[in-house]
Each structure stands twice: as structure tokens, then as C-alpha cells.
Amino acid sequence: MALLEIENLTVTFKTSSGPFKAVDSVSLSCDKGEILSVVGESGSGKSVAMLALMGLLPWTATVTADAMRFDGRDMLTLSARERRRIIGKDISMIFQEPMSSLNPCFTVGFQIGESLRLHLGMGRAERRARSIELLKLVGIPAPEDRLSQFPHQLSGGMSQRVMIAMALACNPKLLIADEPTTALDVTIQAQILDLLVRLQRDHGMGLILITHDMGVVAETAERVQVQYAGQKVEEQDVKGLFADPHHPYTAALLSALPERALRRGRLPSIPGVVPGQGDRPPGCLFAPRCQYATAACQTAPKRQDRALGLALCNYPLVDGVPQGHPGKAAEVNA
Amino acid sequence: MIRFLLYRLALLVPTFIGVSIVAFAFIRMLPGDPILLLAGERGMTEERYQQLQHLYGFDQSIFVQYFNYVADLLSGDFGTSIVTKRPVLEEFFTLFPATLELSLCAIIVATAIGIPAGVFAAVKRGSWLDQSIMGVALVGYSMPIFWWGLLLIIFFSGMLQWTPVSGRISLIYFFPQVTGFMLIDSLLSGQKGAFTSAASHLILPTIVLATIPLAVIARQTRSAMLEVLGEDYVRTARSKGLPPMRVIGLHALRNALIPVVTTIGLQVGVLLAGAILTETIFSWPGIGKWMVDSVGKRDYSVVQGGLLLIAAIIMIVNLLVDVLYGLINPRIRR
Amino acid sequence: MAHTQALQDKPATAGAMRKAMLKEFWYYFSQNKGAVIGLYVFAAIVIIAVFAPIVAPHSPSLQNREALLLPPFWEQGGQFAFPLGTDAVGRDILSRLIYGARFSLFIGVVVVTLSVSFGVLVGLVAGFFRGWIDTAIMRVMDVILAFPSLLLALVLVAILGPGLMNAMIAIALILQPHFVRLTRAAVLSEREREYVVSARVAGASRLRLMFVTILPNCLAPLIVQATLSFSSAILDAAALGFLGMGAQPPTPEWGTMLADAREFILRAWWVVTFPGLAILVTVLAINLMGDGLRDALDPKLKQS
């Protein structure tokens, strides 16, 4: 059994104009020592699924799932108090904006020490020693001095290192990194990613890396799950995904990578935006932006088998060719 | 921090000069001859008039008069009461502790109730609890406190006979002033029942004076908390598995307090304006009643001196609030 | 949503656009139930004040010697002729309250008009010309704000002499620094915007820039502040009346009525209760409206 198993997770938000499904029947698993990458544009419900696992969604959200097991425990039936004993200790999370994710009113040492005291019951001196150890681990120079500093005295990259140190404080079994490098400079991005991968290997953690950047995926992940508008549209290991994407959306994402644009000229882009609350198509959610969509795509698309990357598509691509496609004549959006 | 303080102090200088000009001009703007007003004597001879004119320095140019006035102020001479012939500063210091005791009690009550009320309202946003707290706060904010005091007297003193109507302590007790605070002095005196008497005299005026600051603090705390609760660092704190009490009461409130402290500081002016009405209603022998009585008795040198002293208090308190603001806001501390 | 629909129809004329803006404003304002209640209550008070001679059962100054300190009609000894009782010289309290509404609204209108027109003018000058004019004006405003408002009003009335008119002038003077500060801050943030720069480049005169180009874009915070000042003006005027420095007896001003009633406080609760209640209800209604206006006009809060 995998460390984390989520089956058919659905998250619905109550809004002033009716319910909104941010996550739609998403299944996900991640094992010890594994890196899973969840990829998708903004608004595809990547973070929401993870926040649902952590119990960090606002009260307007309703979470349902067939199963949500972590380390053999059913996270769905846990009370809030029992859940709080797991999150921050066995599962921890780092966020997109390191600068605003640290509390400006407390020192670095205080914020790292908080988890140590809460979950491990460490005393003052122990906490200090462990905090210094953690800061060294994430590559912060002169950790003794950093402990008494406030977040506004740190740079963005430094803040994210502190966030990682905080997340690692209790030796978690699973680390969720939600767009950990998006807000950082390009040079710092690579450093932070290397750090995350190294720490994951050294500690044998599971790592779920949420990103919209295929470049990040290529550098770090082992298994990739592509999400679109709250649905999982494809899942493959990273090599297979880059070599032979099965869902047209994955293919489109990959061809938008600058490294992959072989021909000279404009970088291809995906027309349109992720559907929101008001403009959800009836069938396949990607159909309005898909070059292969036909009338059949107006009803719910088929889930393909594992050999075709579990692609949620009627005409999965194999080597760039849509399988079973009726041809140009039947296409709705040329 | 020191530079910040010096800057704030430097800003006070022009304001203080302005305030002294207002006080200086006050006597000269009153309808009627300032010399007759200051002397408070009837049927004055021409000789006596000349003598007084020279004594008060009115025979000199207006600039010399002003500089003499400021020089007097700096040497601690704030004028002499026309009615009692006592120095204004001396009267001020005998009456000020009464106002200070009342104001401190009021601001303590307002803070102790206002901050928790605002926090509850923000956490339970949109609930009936939020709506009732904010409804009561708006009524308090709109309250004509002089009427509110009379109502409380009708109810608690008239109908229930629980509290006395006026004064600081029952006339049967007498003991020397040590601190000027009746609550403390009555305890020090060791007389039986003295403290209870002092406390029962203090209750209604405190409620009346606390009403508006309480409402303002509750409203400000709510809006500050609402802003802070949406911040990323609150999510970080929750992701550590901290109990809600700690997330709200420490991580969120600590940040929300920064604007609230400024608001509390600004209430000092409101308190002193309120003290004018409250002290008049409850015959509380403080500086508010002193000012009203002096205007009524045309004791204009007291009004002039009191105006300046009260403005000075407000400026000093505002400076202290700035210091406090710097102390609780790490971004300014260093 | 209906309001967005209304906005999407491209307005053809300035009139249509204004209508659409008003519609949008009303949508946000009416979302706040308290504000709508406040508006109705305030409208009712205005109507009562305007038609006071028709609505009031008695003259506010008529002294009924045979009906001194009568309680309200539901108490023992009360009469239906005097629904809320009579005061110490036999005047009908209800009628005095109804006429008092005229004074309170009059005070609010005069004070707000005075302080807004003066404050906005000075604030425009300070924000527009900058330099030493700005510094001098703002230091003067600091000085005014260094005093507790009521104390300064009290002292000003001591200089000018007690009376309703002088009380209003004093209150207008202590309220105007808020308008100066608001206007100046708004002008400072607006004056570097592209539309102002382009108007300047197009050769608009300084006066035109100040009043026609910049001012209309600073209106929202000013309207909210004006509403709040309306209620503080009523409160402060009543407080001055209560201290004997505002409207003088026998004027049926609410604060002055309370001052007259003080000596009967433990004997006749109604002479004290009703005038204060009238002040509270009026001020509360205006503040409710003020909260609604702020929500409707502040684009920052609109999204939430």
C-alpha cells in the first residue's frame, strides 16, 4: 500500500452564484521515496486537492472522496484534533510565496521551534540545536544568527529555505511543495529544486511537487500527473510523458516549452483559458481548446487504460496521432 | 528605532509651537479687553489699568508678548487662576490624577472587551454573533454619551440604588492623597469600605467613558483580523498543525494588533473629549469638569493653560504610541 | 447577476452612463441591509422635520400650566393629548422632539456644507501647489487635531459667545481638517495619473485641473467622510447644547432639552430618555448609511 492514496477526491466550493467544483474525481497516490509531480495551469485544482488533504480549506468547501488514506490511516474520518497531530509532523507543506508565508512578527527560530515543541515536545535548548541543524541542512549560512532574525530581513530564496527547514522539522514522511519556486528568481529556482530533491532522497520522503512548469517536472519528477480544470487527464512516468504524451492537453503543454520548439518562429500556445464556474463545457472540459474535438466530445470522455496513461480522452494520442479519430471532417473546432 | 523616534519628536516641535500660538491668541481673541478679563476686577481706575497692562506685558509688541509667554511656559509658569488665584499648573496636577484614573480604567475596559469582541466577530464572520457584536458596536459608536450617563444614573442609581450618583468616593472617608488614584489610595488608607466606595463611584463613569473607544476598538480589530486571517502565514501556521486558538490568538492577532494599537492611541483624544462630558455628568473632579467650569466662570487664564496642557498630554501620548508601534512592528524595530 | 448585465449594455450617452453607475451603486448599497434601514429611518426623520408644523400635536413652546411633568400616556397619570409626556413647564415633549429634528438636520447640513467646502478647497490648494503652502496648511491642521474636538469647540464658543450659530461654526472648524487631509491625499495620488497629465498637456488651466479634472475622482472618500461628519456634527452640537454652550433655551434642540431635564433625572425619566433616544436614533441611522456608502463606494472592499 502506498504512503498516500486518494481515490475520487471531489472538492466543491459554495459561492454566491452556486456550487463550484474545483476538484473533480481526482485519484492520486504517492509512495515513500517517490517524487510525484502534479502539473496544470492555474485554476486546475492542483493546490486545492492538497489543501483538502491537509484540512486547510475554508468552511465554504465540501470535501468528498471514496478513500483518502495516509500511512494506513483514514484521513476522512479523523477529527480535526487527530488530523492536527499528523499535519505539520508526518505531512508538511511549503507554499508558493515564501515571503508572505512566514509570519512577519515572529523570528525564524520561533517559527521553526513551534512545530518542534508542539509535535516532539522539545525543550528550549533542544529546539535551538535542532533548528540550527535544520537551517544547516537547507543550506543557510551562519544559522545561529538567522534564528533571531525576522522574515523581512531574509531574501525570497532564503525565506523558502526557512520554509523548507520548518517543513522538515519533524522528519515528515510526505512533503507537499506547492509551486515552491514560482515566486523566485530563475537562478534561485534551480537551487531550491536541487535542495528539495536531495532532501527527499536523503530522508526517503514522499514528495508531491505541484507546478505549472514542465521544465521543473523534467528536472525533478519520477511520475507525473496532469490536471486540467479539476480533473486528472493523464498519468505517466516522466520519461514516457515527455516521449509520448497521450492527452492532447499534455501534448499542447509540452509543445509550448521553448526547448521543444524545433522550428523557427512563434512558440505554439494553447488558445483560450481554463473554464471557470460559468463556462464549463458539458462533456470533455478541454474540448473547446482541443484541435481534435468532435461532436462525441460533447459528452463525458472515456478514461483510457494504464497503457495509454489513463488519459481522459476519446482519441488518445500515440506518437502524436489521435487513435480512432474520424478525421478532419468531423471536427467541431478546426 | 532611535532615528525613528527623533524624527517623530522633531515633527512635534511645529505642532507644539502652533498649539502655544492658539493658547496665546485665545485670550486676545475673546470679546472684551483682555486686561479686564485677566484681572477680574470691577471698577478699575485708569492708574490700576496702566499698572496691570505693564504687569501682563500688554504694553509691549505682540512678538515680545509671545516670546515672554513661551519663556514663561518653558519655566513652568502656565498662568494663575483668576478665580482661585492659584497657579494653573498646581490646579492641574491636583485634578489630573482623577482624570487619569478614570481614563485608564476606561481604556482598559475598552481594550479588554473590544479586542476579544472584534476577534470573535472576525472569526465568525457573517454569523449572528458577528452581526450582533457589530450592531452593538455601531450603537455604541453613535451614542450621545452624556445621555447614556444620565440613563445609567436613572437605572442603576435611581431605580436599583446600586451605585452613587456623583463624586469619587463617599464623603465619610478621608485620607491623604498618595498616588492620586482613589482606588489605590483607599487601599493604602486601610479604612474599611473605602475601596468598595471608590470602586462603586468609578463603575458608571468608566462604562460611559469606555463606550465609544470600545466600539471603535471592536470595529477596528474586526477589520484588521479579517485582513490578517486571509494572509499566507496564517495558512502556514495552520499547516503546522497548531490548534486554532494558537493560530488565531497568536499568529493572526499579533499582526492585527499593529493597526489596533494605533487606533487605541488615537482614542486618547476621544477619551479626553469624553471626559469633559463624563466628568460633568458625574461631578468627577478632573480636568474635563475643570475646563467646563472655568469656561462657565470665565476663568480664562485657566482655560488658556488647560488648553495647552491637555494638548501637550495628547501629543506625548501620541509619541508613546509611536514608540509602542515601533516596538511591536518588527519591520520598524531595526 | 442583474447589475453586471446592466453594465454590459454599452451606455450611449453620459446620462445613460450615469444611470448605470447609479444602478451599480444602488446594487452594492442595497446589499447592506443595515444601510437600507438607516436610509429609511433617515428619510422618515427628514419628512417629520420638514412637516413638523403638521405632524406635531402642539406648539413646541406652548406651556400648559395645568399639565406639568406629565408622564407618557402608558404610565399612570399620562394623557393621550401628550403622548410622550410634558416637561417641567408643561410643554409637550413629542412636539418639541419633532421640532428638534429640524435643528439637528439643520446643524448637520450647515456644518457639513461649511467644513466640506472649506476643507476641500484648502486640501486642493495644499495638494495641488505642494511646497511651503502645503507644509504650512498641514501644520495648521495638525494643531487643530492636537486638541480634543469638544474642548476646542468649547473654547471657540467661549470666544464667539454661546449660541447655535456659533456652535455650528466651531464644530465646522474642528471637523474640516479631516476633509483637508482626505482631499490632499487624494489629489496627491491622482495628480500624477495619466489622465491628469494629459489634461495638463492639453492646456487645461489650473482651476480647471483642480475642480473639473481631479476633484470628481476624489469624491468617494469625501462622501463617506461627509456622512460621518454629519453624525458627529449632530452629536457635538448636542453635547455643546448639553453643556449650555450651544442652542439656548427655550430652543427645542435635543441636547439643550437634555440640559434642561437634568435636574428632574430621578423624578421624571421621560424628560431625559426621549431627547437622547432621538439623538441616538438619528446618529445611528446616519452611521448605518455611512457604513453602507463606504462598502458601496470603496472598490477595495467590493470584491469581498
In quaternary terms, these chains amount to: heterotrimer
Widest sheet, order of strands of chain A: 7-8-9-3-10-11
Termini separation of chain C comes to 16 Å
Radius of gyration of chain A: 21 Å
- Beta strand count of chain C: 0
| Shape estimate of chain C | elongated
Mean pLDDT of chain A: 86
Portion in helices of chain C: over 70%
Largest interface: B-C, 45 and 44 residues
Describe it.
Chain C: It is found in: Cell membrane. Chain C: Belongs to the binding-protein-dependent transport system permease family. Chain C: Residues 101-290 form the ABC transmembrane type-1 domain. Chain C: InterPro entries: BP-dependent_transpt_permease, MetI-like, MetI-like_sf, OppC_N. Chain C: This is Dipeptide ABC transporter permease DppC. Chain A: This is Dipeptide ABC transporter ATP-binding protein DppD. The complex is a heterotrimer of chains A (334), B (334) and C (304). Chain A is α/β, with parallel strands linked by helices. Chain A contains eleven helices and 13 strands. In chain A, the strands form three sheets. Chain A has a six-stranded mixed beta sheet with strand order 7-8-9-3-10-11, with helices on both faces. In chain A, strands 1, 2, 4, 5 and 6 form a five-stranded antiparallel beta sheet that branches. In chain A, helix 4 crosses helix 5 (124-137), helix 4 packs parallel to helix 7 (156-168) and helix 5 packs across helix 7 (156-168). The termini of chain A are far apart. In chain A, 43% of the residues are buried. Chain B has a domain at 93-291: MetI-like (MetI-like fold). Chain B is built from 14 helices and no strands. Chain C is elongated and about 75 Å long. Mean pLDDT of chain C is 86; it is low at 1-11. Chain C is mainly alpha-helical. Chain C has a domain at 100-295: MetI-like fold (Orthogonal Bundle), CATH 1.10.3720. Helices cover 72% and strands 0% of the residues of chain C. The chains are: A alpha/beta (334), B mainly alpha (334), C mainly alpha (304). Chains in contact: A-B, B-C. Chain B binds chain C through residues 14-15, 18-19, 21-22, 26, 29-31, 135, 138-139, 141-144, 146-148, 150-151, 153-154, 157-158, 269-270, 272-274, 276-277, 280, 291-292, 295-296, 300, 303, 307, 310-311, 314-315, and chain C through 34, 139-140, 142-143, 145-151, 154-155, 158-159, 161, 231, 235, 238-239, 242-245, 255, 258, 262, 265-266, 269, 272-273, 275-277, 279-280, 283-284, 286-288, 291.
